[in-house]
């Protein structure tokens, strides 16, 4: 293994917009899911968080955005700093107002609201959202503009994912926590979505913490990556280095150095299952 | 000929009182949709509205509009107070605990009214027009007709708020997916508070109208029983269901009362309830499964 867990070896000259320090998360006072997890997201970067099913990726994002409260989960140790300030005690909507936006796994569009109303619903954290903010969303997702009067429940999976990201965009946050944007999408659509994610990051300067099962995609757009297993980080480093690391290639990209893959079938199988689940 | 006339008159009266079921049902549905609380105190909140109006109009001898305005304000404050002190601390508790709590709330409201105004029936000052009204040959009580007109206006305001007001978007978003609403910056506790305020104001207005037609007494809360049937038949989470089922049950009760006798009113509605539950367990227009209690 390369870097030790819990000790992000990052260029300290650059500021972290998000700094998660050694957190522990427990559900229902009994089930411990995160065990001393640390990570940092550098201002303006896309940072990837990878790991297998049930490793605790979603839980990590919920701990950051405050949504654990809704599920009887709690951060029982460690600190989470957003923009240098502790998030402890803040309600989710207050964190959004400060610029931290969580795009939940599984899209969660408001099905009986129109596309436009879904975007309006994401502007409550801001004093004055104007037509220009909506136009910005529609410029990234022209498809949403065509469907703006349609009920979100009738959108295709890809369109719903666009809407989920569009809602984050209209809120103009400083950081977006993005949970599995490729979930249930075709490879082509996944690529399209990721292209737009990279554009938003580059053009709007929005930092992103990206949780993904599609490691290849995540490596393609991120500059730094963390890999977690059962509640803690096991490897982390700049993406270009991790992507060429033989262990990582074998276990997370599904290609061993012998070329043939040992885990490839598992990966395929997993993806199929995910798609089926969504 | 006269048979037809009777049928029409009875039907009009039924639909008229159905309008009051409809708006009270709407109040119930709003709270259920936004907060998932089954509010069994809705009938008692309606009763309290009627008594507050009585206090302002008969007690303090305020003119009608001031008394009505005062009632609306008090009902809104009551809604905010109930949500803040009783409902919000119960967040995350089992639905049955909250359900029981609203039953307790109903008893508290009834007890309070009895302490202040006594247990005897009272009459509200006459403020609805009282001369007979004829639609063609059919006689309609002008009180019922006016109450129906006011209820219609309440429904229109309600629907317009839901559709066009920004806060209406927050309400519907929260009703549709609470976690997602939270995650995008909607102040969910404030939405809860708002839904209780709007619902209690609506129930309070319904109370003023019910009281103007039939007088007021601390037992008025049983009106809530019919409203419960309305929302179960229509679907706990359906605005359209509350409106349609409200009118229909008003009609059904009037017909059963006129043709079978007053004692059949409740029987008819509960037979309808059982039939609907057997055919469609979550109501005619309901979408989600009813919380198991
Ligand atoms: N509300 C909850 N109550 C109890 N346990 C939970 C809860 N939410 C998640 N867990 C547990 O925490 C662990 C991590 O879950 P989490 O959803 O964070 O995984 P994940 O890495 O996002 O997985 P996936 O790739 O499947 O989305 C799992 O074992 C899960 O069962
Ligand atoms: Mg997950």
From TrEMBL, chain A:
GO terms for biological process: L-amino acid transport. Belongs to the ABC transporter superfamily. PANTHER family: ABC TRANSPORTER SUBSTRATE-BINDING PROTEIN, HIGH-AFFINITY BRANCHED-CHAIN AMINO ACID TRANSPORT ATP-BINDING PROTEIN LIVF. The keyword Cell cycle does not apply. Signal peptide: none annotated. GO terms for molecular function: ATP binding; ATP hydrolysis activity; branched-chain amino acid transmembrane transporter activity. PROSITE patterns: ABC_TRANSPORTER_1, ABC_TRANSPORTER_2. This is ABC transporter ATP-binding protein. Coiled coil: none annotated. Keywords: Amino-acid transport, ATP-binding, Nucleotide-binding, Transport. Residues 18-255 form the ABC transporter domain.
UniProtKB/TrEMBL annotation, chain B:
It is a multi-pass membrane protein. InterPro entries: ABC_transp_permease, BCAA_transport_permease. Its main location: membrane. GO terms for biological process: amino acid transport. Keywords: Amino-acid transport, Cell membrane, Membrane, Transmembrane, Transmembrane helix, Transport. It is found in: Cell membrane. One of its GO terms (cellular component) is plasma membrane. GO terms for molecular function: transmembrane transporter activity. The chain crosses the membrane at residues 6-30, 37-56, 62-82, 94-119, 139-162, 194-216, 222-252, 264-283. Pfam families: BPD_transp_2 (PF02653). Belongs to the binding-protein-dependent transport system permease family. LivHM subfamily. This is Branched-chain amino acid ABC transporter permease. It comes from Marivibrio halodurans.
